[in-house]
Structure formats: C-alpha cells, structure tokens
Design a protein that fits this description.
Structural class: alpha+beta
Strand content: 15-25%
Helix content: 25-40%
Number of helices: 17
Shape: globular
Oligomer: single chain
Number of strands: 22
Largest sheet: 8 strands, mixed
Length: 591
Amino acid sequence: MHAYRSHTCGDLTAAHAGETVRLSGWVHRVRDHGGVLFVDLRDHYGMTQVLADSDSPAFAAMDKLRAETVIRIDGRVKLRDASLVNPKLPTGEIEVYATDLEVLGPSDELPLPVFGDQEYPEETRLAYRFLDLRRESLHNNIMLRSKVVRSIRNRMWDQGFTEFQTPIITASSPEGARDFLVPSRLHPGKFYALPQAPQQFKQLIMVAGFDKYFQIAPCFRDEDPRADRSPTDFYQLDLEMSFVDQEDVFAAIQPVIQGLFEEFGNGRPVDADWPRIPYAEALLKYGSDKPDLRNPIEMQVVSDHFRGSGFGIFAKLLEQEGTEIRAIPAPTGGSRKFADRMNAFAQREGLPGMGYIFWRKSEDGSTEAAGPIAKALGHEKTEAIRQQLGLGEGDAVFFLAGKPEQFEAVAGRARNEIGRELGLTQENQFKFAWIVDFPMYEKTDDGKIDFSHNPFSMPQGGLDALAGDPLAVKGYQYDLACNGYELISGAIRNHKPEIMFKAFELAGYPASEVEKRFGGMVKAFRYGAPPHGGCAAGIDRIVMLLADEQNIRQVIMFPMNQRAEDLMMGAPSEPTNEQLRDLRLRVLPKE
C-alpha cells in the first residue's frame, strides 16, 4: 500500500464497503459520542468520516487529536446505517473504522477556525492565509478561478489565438497608474519597471506578424486599493489582433466572456444582447461609464422645466454656464418616507439632500404632485416632468443640479441605491454593455490637457481630428461593463507614427520625449505596422462576479491588505545595507 493513501477523502462510496484503505488529510473536527470518537478527515478532494471505539488500536491516539493536525489512518470501510447517511457528501454512505493512526503534521492551537464560516478580522485571515485557504468557501473560490483560467485558455486557442509571454522586467510606460520601479545593479542610477500591462509588447507582436495573440498576463500597478481592485498586482486576459476594426474585437471576445459566464454562473441568466452605449450617453443616463443595466432606471435632463420657474434655487443655478438639472425616476418610490431615506443617503454622500417630487391620488381622484418642489413649480410644470419621465401615481423623481462633472458620480450611486431600495434591480443575472466613443483627452485640475484613456489609441478621424479642440476628439476606445463593474478595456491602436506624435504633442509630450520613452514602438511603426487592436479582461474581477463575492481579495490566493501589505510574508520589507550598497541607493529617513 502507498505510504500515505490508497484513496483520497473524496473517493470512497458504498462500492468500497469491506475494503481496507489508507487515507491522509487534515482533522476537520473531532466529536466524542460517549466512547466512540468521530473524525471528519479532509483533504483537497473531499471529506470522509472516520470513527474509532475503545476496541480500536487507534482510539488512544485519536482522543488526543487537535483540529487541523495532519494524520494518516488505516481502516475498514463500513456502510452507514440508512438513518445516518449524509446525502450532502459524496462519501456520505460510508465511514471508515480506524485500525491505525499516525500523526504526520501536528498543529498548534489555531488563530482562527477552519471548521465553519465564522467571520474573523481580515488582518488575522491574511496573516494566516494558509489557514484561511483551507476554509470551504475560499478554497472553492480559488478552484473556480483555476477552472476559469483553464476555460479562457481553451476558448482562446479554439478561436485561433496563440499564447505568448511578454517580459516582466521592462521600461516605464504611462498606463494611468504609478509604476513599480526596479533598480538596476548593473546600471547604477537606472531603473526597470514592472509592466502595468503588456501594452507595447503586444502591439510589437502584431508588427512582428503574429496576427492573433493572447496571454494570461500579470500586471503591476501601484494603486490605491478598492473592494474591486488589488493595490499591487492582478491578472488579465490580454489579447491583440491585426487587420481588425472595433466590431471585429467585440465579435472575438464576446463568445469567450459570455461562454465563461454561462459555464460558471450557476445557472444565472446571461444576457446575449450587449448594447453599444456612447460614453457621454452612459454618464447622462446612468451617471457611470460602467453602468449596472440590471437596474432599469435611466436619468434624464429636465433643465427646461426649471428655467425661470418658481423654484428659485434651480432657476438661479441654471443662469450659470454649463449647469443642468438631472432627474432620477423612482417608480413605486412615491412616499415621503422613501424620500426621507434618499435624502439621508444624499447627506451621507456629502450633499445637503436631493430635491424630489412624488405623485399621489388627490381627493378628487386625480393624480397630484407633492413635495416642496411641486408647490414651487406648479401643476403645469410638474405634469410636464411626469409626462417626460413616464411616471404615475405612486412614483417619485429625485433631482441633482449643477455642473454634470461635479454631480454625475453621486447621481450614479443614487440611481443604484434607488434601484436596490425599490427592488427594481434584477438580481442573479448578468447584463453586459460596451461603452464606446471615449474622449481621447481630458482637462486636469491644473488646466492642462492629458490622455483620459489609453494613450496608444487611434483617434476617430485620424490626424484631421487632432487639428481641432482636443477635448472634442473621441478615440476608438471601449470598455465592457457588467453589473456595475468594468470587466474589459481596449482600443483600436494608433499604428501611424505621425498620428502618434501629434496625439502625444497635444498631451504635452514633445517628439523627443516620445522617441525617448517609446522608441522601440515608434521604430517598429516605421517598418510596416498593420492596423491592429485588442483589449484586456480582468480575471480577478470576472471570478469575483462569478463567485458572487463583494471583495476581490476573496478570489485571490495571496492578496495584499488595504494598505498594500503582505501580512503573511512581511512585505514590503526594509532592504539590508548590503543590498542598498549593491544598488548604490540610499533610503531617506521619514519626514
């Protein structure tokens, strides 16, 4: 017999009754039933119930076991009584009567339990991640992740893509976040960077003539953490294609993503209709460029109803350039109680509140508008608002006013809150949308022009488009949103040097700087570059949605905490003096 096991803890069934077997695994829990000891023995594959009574040679050793000790047991497979069969376990028809037991790896007292799903502080869970990973839900999430990655690879190969690996140590490149820099020992004073994405390399693969590339790529960005974003590194499905337009990229990636969600979504409906929503329209209707389309609420501009109206606050505001009034319909939300709850939400968001109107049945049986704004506007204007929004008795509308860029994000969150509160958001399904026509540029806080998205994107209209107002230029850039999360970002690339130089010039990069920072790609484009485009899909975020988790750390095997610290391995750590000398670096003391 094998030194450690003849079967796994998920193998044994009624067909093995009477056999002598050997199992190894972790002690999940020990139960004492008055002279009969039961051990739930767990390994990667499942759980088997082991028992010993006072006649068993293994009884004395089993009586001393502590949870999470690793043991080997020999024993005989027995059928359970019919009343004791556990239908939830594949091994639930049998148990193993232990005749011998060896402790392979003793366990100290546990800092957190593995048995059960008790909530424990995240700092403890991350410091003892190897224990946390033994817990069933997290173990299942990591296995789901592995299956998703395997499925992605199979689907990409089936579509004619070829997998290549790109460098991990490279040059710094602007991707919208801070680089992790790596000092060079051989070239003192110079630094490599960990890639924020394989952007330049995958474009060079197209220039090299390989046509359809993909990679499960590690990416490194020094970012502030969020519930749906890792602060240091993440993995993405990276792909690029030659001789394609935007629709070709959409057609290539949709079957892959849709197939994943159908395969691993536990039967939740996956909408096959992926609408194309222009960026400006997404912000107007949903207050977000990653809208949750499970929520049917669409915002509308209602400024004209307030111009010169009796509601002086809004009327006066509209006299300022660039301001507008936006309405968030709230079907079935027509009560003062709900309006008060939404006002409390707005105050938590830092606003003084949200104006509202709700409609109710009047004494004469007609539908009347109620609330302070309704009184100030009068019947004619409130009725016009109701007709525009398609609302009726028992419904409400909330208003946000000012310059859209200042209130859109809050409006989007308010839309989500209203959808949840009123039960309008259709849970347990997946709805996708392509967000297209992103602006190429944006104005920074100090008034400068900078790239708003990927700097290597082709502007719509080519070189001619760059001759006018940079803020009016749209790029062939696109994101895929699903249930309020961004899953994919991509673009048709700028493959012409003259357009590339002009695009960077508008963002404040002279030609000399472009040559210095992106010389390899500029050089390549001068030797016959095909039109090309692609995208990247966030694997961590995809798995988070499939696992129905709210925090991305629940689907990453060894994540950092909110302060970008690895509590288990002690990273980041202080370098030794010898390491600093080798690199000719000095660390300045903290201010």
